Amino acid sequence: SEKIRIEIISLGFTEPQIASDETIQQLFVECRLSNFLAEETPLSLRKPTGGRRIHYNYSNVIYVDKANNWARREYLKSMFLKPDLHTDSLQFTVVSDPPDDEEDLECEDIGFAYVSLRKILQEQRDIIEQDIDVFDSKDDSAVIGKLKVTVEALHVLRSVYEECEED
Fold first, then answer.
1. Per the database record, which ranges form the RPGRIP1 C-terminal domain (predicted)?
2. How far is CA 101 from CA 43, 46, 104, 159, in A?
């Protein structure tokens, strides 16, 4: 059936301030398509140190078939019909998960990474095990790390785009 497959493979930081920040202990990654869909890795993992990476090996499928997921499909169509910079990307958020013994602390966004679905269609290729930049949540011009992801969406994006041209 028609689907988008997203895999969150691993995360590593390039900025030493993340490694030295004692308030950041455990991390999980959320993936979101607009306000429309959010998934997160089921586990938060210990923060990587010394240039290492943590491995989530988390995979998720978003179904966008006409029969059962019409609204998602219409959203993808609107992305092509109304080009707006913020609606065509999957957003990955790296989130600090406070330790269990620190109930007063809240989850905190550490950084953001993006994959443009429009760019996948334009370049006619999926993102396969590719490192994407993670930007600091407090300074979106600063790259703090790399998130290795796979986004297989080309097949369904072609299909939706062809529907737009037919309408």
1. 1-163
2. 17, 15, 9, 49
Candidates 31, 143, 30, 47; CA nearest to 98 is: 47
Tokens for 135, please give them. Answer: 């930007």
CB 26 within 8 A of CB 44: yes
Cβ-contact 35, 15 below 8 angstroms: no
- The pair of three-digit structure tokens given for residue 58, joined into one six-digit string: 């988390």
Condensed to tens digits (0 to 9), the pLDDT of residues 4-49 reads: 999 999 999 998 888 888 889 999 999 998 766 778 999 999 999 8
Q: Tokens 């290729």 label which residue?
A: 125
Question: Residue ranges of the domains in the chain?
Answer: 3-166
Residue 99 has pLDDT above 80, yes or no: no
Global pTM reads 0.91
How many distinct helices (H) and strands (E) make up the chain?
4, 9
Which CATH number does 3-166 carry? 2.60.40.150
What are the tens digits of pLDDT across the range 67-84? 998 888 888 888 888 776
